[in-house]
Structure formats: C-alpha cells, structure tokens
Amino acid sequence: MKLLKKILLSLMAILVMMAISAIVHASTDWQNFDGTMMGHAKHYKIIKYSPTGWGNFEAWYQRKYFTNKQNPQYKYTKENRTLLIRYQNPNKHLHVKYNYRKFIIRHGHKTPTYTTYYKIGNASWVYANTIKYWLEKPTRF
Q1: Are 52 and 129 within 8 A, CB to CB?
Q2: Please, what is the Cα angle at 70 between 66 and 72, to 5 degrees?
Q3: Rounded Cα gap, residues 127 and 53, in angstroms
Q4: For 25-36, what is each residue's pLDDT tens digit?
Q5: How far is the CA of 17 from the CAs of 13, 22, 23, 54, 77, in angstroms?
Q6: Who's near 126: CB < 8 A, 6+ residues apart?
Q7: pTM of structure
Q8: Which ranges in the chain belong to alpha helices (H)?
Q9: In 3-state terms, what secondary structure has residue 41?
Q10: Does residue 105 contact residue 141 with C-beta atoms inside 8 Å?
Q11: Would you say residue 50 has pLDDT above 70?
Q12: Is 84 a residue whose pLDDT tops 50?
C-alpha cells in the first residue's frame, strides 16, 4: 500500500513537472514582430543619448542590421516590461545567426519611455538612447 502511494505520488510529480515545463517553454517562444505593436507616436523627446555608443553611424547600422524586411521576431517579458527583438544577421563574417535590439519600457502605456540597447554578433549590449513618446494609440506592452 505504501509502495503504491509512493509510485502514484512520483507519477503525479512527474506529470506536474512536465506541465510546468510545457507552460514555461510556450511562454518563451519567439513570435513575429510587427512595428505597429509599439504604438503610433504623435510626439517624442530624446531624454538621453549615448555619445560613445553608436554616434554618427547609428542610421547606417539601423539600415544594415535592423530592418523589418528580414522577418524580425520578438519576445516580451511582462514582469520587467522588456521587449527583445531579434533580426537575421546579414553579415556572415560574424558567425552568429541573429542580431538583437532590446527595449526596456517604463511609465504608462500612452506616454512610455523606451530605453534602447543593441547587440551585433557576439559583442556585449550597447546602450543607444532613452526616448519618451506621446502615443495616439497606446502600446500593447
């Protein structure tokens, strides 16, 4: 009888662990990104800009490594309002498949503040800017 209880409890524990891992895995899948999900801005203000980050080359890097025609995907973390977007890497010399852009969203949904970081290849995260937006349509995040 005790052996049967132990077997049933262990089977229940295994089933619960499998269910939890399936839920966690489902919430961490990458989803297709659409630029309209970020809202539509009627006004914005640059609060802080990194002089040592991207400098004058930001527009060139944006066009080359972070364009929407490369089927970007996103992952959103609700607890800390972090949006991570990955783009396919066009540069084969970097030996990585994706480049990343990270947005940390603060304040409300109609007047959010986005802090932006970039990551190309195996390099570390680079701070780019902090921008406050006034949105006509609120963001989903």
Answers
A1: no
A2: 70
A3: 6
A4: 444 689 998 877
A5: 6, 9, 10, 44, 22
A6: 50, 53, 54, 117, 118, 119
A7: 0.71
A8: 2-27, 58-65
A9: strand
A10: yes
A11: yes
A12: yes
